[in-house]
Amino acid sequence: MNPLKQLEALGQSLWLDYIKRSLIDKGELRTLVERDGLKGVTSNPSIFEKAIAETNEYTDALKHFQVQADHSISAIYEHLAFADIRAAADVLRPVYDNTHGRDGYVSLECSPYLANDTEATVREALRLCTAVDRPNLMVKVPATPAGIPAIRQLIGRGLNINITLLFSVNVYEQVVEAYISGLEDLKKSDGDITKVGSVASFFVSRIDTAVDKQLDKLGDKEVADELHGKAAIANAKLAYVQYKALFSGPRWERLAAAGAKTQRLLWASTSTKNPAYKDTMYVEGLVGRDTVNTMPPATIDAFRDHGQATPDAIEQDVSGARAVLAALEKHGISLKDVTDELVTDGVQLFAEAFDKLFGAIARNRHALTDGKRADLEIVPGFPEMKSAYENELEVWRKNGFIRRFWAGDKSLWTGADEDKWLGWLDIVGHELAGVGLLQGFAADVKQRDFTDVVLLGMGGSSLGPEVLSETFGQQTGWPHFHMLDSTDPAQIKAIERAIDLGKTLFIVSSKSGSTLEPNIFMDYFFERVGVVRGKHKAGDQFVAVTDPGSSLERRAKQLGFAHIFYGVPSIGGRYSVLSKFGLVPAAAMGLDVKRLLETALFMERACGSDVPPSENSGVKLGIALGIAATSFGRNKVTIIASPEIADLGAWLEQLLAESTGKHGCGLIPLADEPPNTPDHYGSDRFFAYLELDGRAAQSQQDAVAALEKAGHPIAKIHVKDIWHIGQEFFRWEIATAVAGKIIGIDPFDQPDVEASKVKSSALTEVYEKSHSLPKEEPVFRENGVALYADPRNAAELGRHNTLAGYLKSHFGRMKAGDYVALLPYIQRDEIHTRAMTAMRTRIRDKTHAATSLGFGPRFQHSTGQAYKGGPNSGVFLQVTCDDPSDIDVPGHSYSFGIVKAAQARGDLDVLVERNRRALRVHVKDVDAGLVELARAIDEALE
Ligand SMILES: O=P(O)(O)OC[C@H]1O[C@](O)(CO)[C@@H](O)[C@@H]1O
Ligand SMILES: O=C[C@H](O)[C@H](O)COP(=O)(O)O
Q: Which of 755, 762, 713 is nearest to 867 (CA)?
């Protein structure tokens, strides 16, 4: 007789500890059932990892699934695994029916990532049950301290549960208690206890492996030889004694009388791991009535070939088993310690199998969509960076940091209130679900034939829309887009001149609704439109984007705005571009918002909680940024982007600087610094190169290649087409929050921005009262240029006869790793940008210091946070000017020019207060002044 069939005759059910698609497709599983009396199947994460990641049996199914639509990694895994589980369950169904639910099960394990969370395990088991939708499914729940209460709850809800990772008799007793109590609960709630099937998977071979290792360490060969390979079966024998004891007596009899089935012991981990042992030892020693043995194919084949089935082997020599365990204790080997560790290791091993499996699926998903080319390549630059980066990836994987991140675990960061600021993680899906609203708005804009759209907002409320408009350009048949984020009167005038006031739509954008600039821009343009259209009609041309309940919402209602769109309060400004703050302007520009979001969703999935760090695009980038800054002082994130997507740099500056630059640390992002050869850079740089497919600038490519050769770390990002800009938004948001964790700050607050606002508004209040700003005395004046410095900076600079002398002294204060920030409060136009860029390039090339350029007050809502709150390594040169013509702010005695002056002064005061090296250059005439300044800088750097 087939020895496997003998097991059946001896009261033991044979299950298969294995699954893969071909086993079912080729009919092998059916053969096992028919020929060998197979009565069940068990799977686990390692089994699926081997099946899916290490064979090509799933390639077509994966492709087919992905062709229909993009899916998350776990959705792909579940699609593949559930299909196998269902197919196997269908093969086993007759066994299930014939044995009235005693056998015929197929087991599927709950995610090992949830093993320490009772509620999540319960939810997961219920979800799996519904999704697989087979009565003969058994859900595997681990016998961890969190798993045990879940078992009771799930049995209490009538689920079939296979308890896994069970190693100790003591824990087994708790498992049986959970099972019996669960049945009692079910009975009490009038559930059908006759239908519940359950097994307790008692692992064997792993115990021997662990105990043998300890025996070998004892250094006593005799003892080791005596006890090697004995612990597991001895332990199992005692578990079986308990099985018989626990499923007897009045409490159990009551349930049995109502039709309950015992929870059988299932011998798991039955392949021999030590080749010196007989390959059937964990079958032969464990034959027993009312038990199950789940075996991998090789063990099944071995037992069929040469197995010996001894009746009731499990009940033989129980005293010998006790003696074995006592001997182990006597020699200092604690079975409790061994089994405790095995549970922890078991969870970790299965989690690692999932990591590997999900990583493999992520690679396949990417290859199917994006081909072979990686969308992100981290070039570490030098060996120490490479190993630190790889170590950190492993730290993130081992500790499940990505899952904690997505679960909103604030202790991952500083434990402040980071969990309240993660609404951007799933905003793309939400916006897609409600995209009709935006499409309706776009139709309204188009139908109303606006010539222009002007967005009034600062920082996170304007930089994203600016990127979209700069990247996509004006859409045919749609209004021309403008963005106002400056109080400079000339800038405001320039916009007013460029538009037709009566045919322009104004989008007032402010999350808080209380930011000064958008409010006074709104007041100004509302009044101007009122003049053209009549006061009562002006509201028709205004739209507000704001968070619910803000003062802007109130005003928009009072003024009769055409639309009010709401932001999500759990999304901070700089993370808001994929919410209404980016999408409303995008819709008004005529962009296909749905396409933008759908493309972004791909990146959301690529950065998902189920994508291990080594494959997780945003996490890899964030780890590289964080490690480069914290371990190697490379915190100057130099952004080089293909010309068509270059404006991303401005958005990235805010995201990186405002998120990380605080408490004296953080990243200093630098956009638009023209690249040069490697000898022009210090060793404080980290480069981010964003290359738009097919549109790369040769000069940038050459520069980056040279930087790579010179050993600078670089994140190379391949942007497939401009629609992928939405992916960059998401990737960098994740990366920033990850880098924030490594840097050790809260990436969602901006503690130092407020300080400048307070100082500026104090100054405007003074102006309201006295009609002048407090008087200031320059430390130096020459050729229409005046220099202002506080006493400390003035003393440090000393006295000089020329502007160049002061500048020389100012730049002379720089040390390696410092940067220079040029902060002009002048109109931001092409000419001025070019002039200022030439100055910064000159400074960089001469001093090798990193340089940044921020027009005021725009940068105050962006890089300003890092200048004031980040590392004290900035050397600041503020540039202010006389405004030849000014504009009054309606309802106030101050003008835009006064506001701008107050903002510049307020910000400088804070820089000074924070002990920064800062100096203000005031020019009477902007154009002549910039020429003079450039000349003086040249001279100073000679
Ligand atoms: O959208 P709001 O509330 O007007 O804020 C604009 C910007 O100002 C800041 O709060 C800081 O200045 C930014 O974080 C924000 O993006
Ligand atoms: O339920 C089955 C278990 O997951 C399996 O038997 C574990 O076996 P292993 O110890 O050989 O990995």
A: 755
Is there a common fold for 3-346 and 373-407+609-743? no
CATH topology for 751-941 is Rossmann fold (3.40.50)
Pinpoint the alpha helices (H) of 194-334.
205-218, 221-227, 231-246, 249-257, 281-284, 297-306, 318-330
Q: What is the pTM of this model?
A: 0.95
pLDDT digits (tens, 9 = 90+) for 207-249: 999 999 999 999 889 999 999 999 999 999 999 999 999 999 9
The verdict on domain 3-346 having CATH code 3.20.20.70 is: yes
- Ligand 1 centroid–CA 758 distance in Å is 14
* Domain positions in the chain: 3-346, 373-407+609-743, 425-597, 751-941
Q: What is the largest CA-CA distance in the chain?
A: 109
pLDDT of residue 783: 85
Predicted pLDDT at 558: 97
Joined together, the tokens standing for residue 69 give: 């639509």
**b/e per residue 472-492 (b: at least 16 CB within 10 A):** beeeeebbbbbbbbbbbbbbb
Q: Is 140 a catalytic residue?
A: yes
Distance 30 CA to ligand 1 centre (A): 64
Residues 859-895 pLDDT 10s: 999 999 999 999 999 999 999 999 999 999 999 999 9
* Contacts of 834 by beta carbon, 8 Å cutoff, 6+ apart: none
In the predicted model, what is the mean pLDDT of the chain?
Answer: 97
Output the pLDDT for position 102: 97
Ligand at shortest distance from the CA of 862: 1
Below-50 pLDDT ranges, the chain: none
Q: Of the residues 553, 571, 753, which should be mutated to test ligand 1's pocket, given the most ligand atoms within 8 Å of the CB?
A: 753
Nearest C-alpha neighbor of 561 from the set 572, 550, 571: 550
Buried b (16+ CB within 10 A) or exposed e, 50-79: bbbbeeebbeebbeebbeeebbbbbbbbbb
Q: Could you say which of 3.40.50.300, 3.40.50.10490, 3.60.15.10, 3.30.2350.10 is the CATH number of the domain covering 425-597?
A: 3.40.50.10490
What is the CATH number assigned to the segment(s) 373-407+609-743?
Answer: 3.40.50.10490
